[in-house]
Amino acid sequence: MRTTLSSIPSPQPSAPNSWQTSGLKNKACRWLNATGLRPAAIPCPIGLPGASVDGGSKEVTLQTVHPLVIACCLSACVAPPGSPSGDGGLPSSPSCGDGLVEGEEACDDGNWDETDDCLSNCEIARCGDGVIGQEERCEPEADSANPHCDADCQLADCGTVFDYQALWVRGFRVCRAEALHEADGDLSERAVAALEEDLDIIAAALPVAAMNYLKRVTIWLEYEQDFPGGVYHPSPVWLRNNGYPEAWAEGVQLGNAANYMSWVSQQPAIVLHELAHAWHHQFLGYDHEGIQRAFDEAMTAGIYEEVAHVAGGSQQAYATSNRMEYFAELTEAWFWVNDFYPFNRDELQAHDPAGAQMIQQAWGLRSE
According to the model, what pLDDT value does residue 95 have? Predict the structure, then answer.
């Protein structure tokens, strides 16, 4: 039976507490105080402080109750344990989210916080439930593409053989060389901050699905390695045969933090360039026909043999190196800015329409 309400004055503005409806999980009314939701929700209208129930008309009088409670009490109410049901009373049935552990519920904390110990379906949170909790860094089910998520829902470290510190930067596992932090702590922190900014720009530019996929790629931030700029390592065999750690395989390496900080003045999209290699290798495959075809057409036409450079003058574009660099350079131009002409998306579409079309298809974009 629908109840009617009368005598509902608005609360004083200075009152620290107020009534609110859950809005999402159920229609139970919850008492909010300065510290947030009470563990147990108070059903309406029975049990409401300052409420009186006329058994004949079901007319409820509420005193100093926030008007938001009206929608709650008129739509559906959850009766407390032991309340009468049927004629002359209110329905009494377990409701997940009312703050009361009833029926088959394992828990009920009366809130929608998925990261605490009790999930919104009233089941106990555990590793593997698909929800990344407060003590977890990842979830095998929610993030099954991430090879760094272990059975305890923690991110694997950077390896016990090498001296790196594992950081979590904008969803990427970043392995920062201890040598960098020990030699120049200020440079180390500035490089991490710059990497955060770059990843923010990349996340805003790339399709969401592509960015989420690329978070499987580890970024290695070095002090002074043999690779002075950015590099993507596709092969563990090559690394092993040349005396480098196999752990670097399928990761992006910024081989010199100082160079990274200075080179971005002319090559701001260094990190995007290397992540494009990872996308090409791991998702598309280096044998991708569309990339090979666009590269062959551009090389045959000679449109990259002599182009403008950001530092001035003209020279052969880095995109002529091979199909991998062609794809990465055009990715820079499309999503950010390149250091060779074409520098941006509009120039790429005018200079190399086939290449621009290829980029859209390779990254899963709609053609412009």
Answer: 73
Pairing state of beta strands 52-53 and 59-61? antiparallel
Task: With beta carbons less than 8 A apart as the criterion, state whether 223 and 165 touch.
Answer: no
Token readout for 131 is 């929800």
Beta strand 172-177 with 219-221 is parallel
Torsion 21-22-27-33 (CA) sign: negative
Residue 165: which H helix or E strand, with range?
strand 164-169
Report the range of poorest mean pLDDT among 21-30, 136-145, 163-172, 242-251.
Answer: 21-30
pLDDT (tens digit per residue) in 231-254: 999 999 999 999 998 999 999 999
Report which residue type is found at 321: S
CA angle 215/220/224 to nearest 5° reads 160
**3-state SS assignment for residue 260:** helix
Paired with 60 in beta bridges are: 5, 53
At 176-234, the pLDDT tens digits run 999 998 999 999 999 999 999 999 999 999 999 999 999 999 999 999 888 889 999 99
Q: How far apart are CA 199 and CA 192, in angstroms?
A: 10
Q: Is 329 left (phi over 0), alpha (psi -120 to 50) or beta?
A: alpha
Both structure tokens of 80: 């407390």
d(C-alpha 341, C-alpha 26), whole Å? 58
Q: Residues 202, 205, 210, CA angle at the centre, nearest 5°?
A: 80
Helix spans in 264-352 (H): 270-278, 289-301, 323-335, 345-351
Q: Domains plus CATH for the chain?
A: 1-112 (no CATH), 164-362 (3.40.390)
Average pLDDT, the chain: 76
| Element containing residue 182 per DSSP (H, E) | helix 178-183
pLDDT of residue 332 exceeding 70, the answer is yes
Q: Which uninterrupted H or E stretch holds 204?
A: helix 185-205
